Amino acid sequence: ETGVTQTPRHLVMGMTNKKSLKCEQHLGHNAMYWYKQSAKKPLELMFVYNFKEQTENNSVPSRFSPECPNSSHLFLHLHTLQPEDSALYLCASSQAPDLSSYNEQFFGPGTRLTVL
Amino acid sequence: GESVGLHLPTLSVQEGDNSIINCAYSNSASDYFIWYKQESGKGPQFIIDIRSNMDKRQGQRVTVLLNKTVKHLSLQIAATQPGDSAVYFCAEMVQGAQKLVFGQGTRLTINP
Predict the structure, then answer these.
(1) B34, B43, B105 ranked by CB distance to A2: nearest
(2) A54-91 per-position pLDDT tens digit
């Protein structure tokens, strides 16, 4: 186990549904990330949060809405998704970097999302 | 722009043999490189990393080689075991940044 948990592990939703993905890290980290892993593309960074503040949005459509209430929890709220949004959504955490550091990112097991 | 790619999408080796997985990157500003292993149903797991001021780093049964001249990275796994079967990703990062850029991935299959 990496110390990063994600729920649910599997989710099937219709295009008009609203659902949320949850991530929790037990590593004392202060940075959290959402990644999308689809079959035909490399793993893509979506959002970065440092100390609960969003510091990166990698041109993600607004139908994906992240929320970081504290450094240990991260949510991804989903609304009116498209079938092409079906993918594995991975959460990761790390120490927040400074200019001289490289901080390993620890990944959760992911949520397998299917949009019908 | 940035891109990280893998030469081979699949690789099959006999148990006990050595395997080499290759990766090309294009961002010359990247100075930190990581290899991840992803088993079925799990997230990527860190294997080994290397900084740009090095050209070789060894771990337990794994070696990463970095050739900055041709922007090439490789992962060597010695004496492969069934548990090495997984998808392997290379990723690159710029020091102090948080954006990991991942390659496509190579599926390694170990034949008994």
Answers:
(1) B43
(2) 998 999 999 999 999 999 999 999 999 999 999 999 99
CA distances from residue A78 to A27, A33, A82, B56, B86 in whole angstroms, order as listed: 26, 16, 10, 43, 30
- In eight-state DSSP terms, residue A85 is G
**CB contact (8 A) between residue A102 and residue B100:** no
By residue count, chain B amounts to: 112
Nearest C-alpha of chain A: how many angstroms from B99? Answer: 7
Residues A9-21 pLDDT 10s: 999 999 989 999 9
CB contact under 8 A, A94 and B43: no
Q: Which residue of A has its CA nearest to B31?
A: A102
pLDDT, averaged across chain B:
89
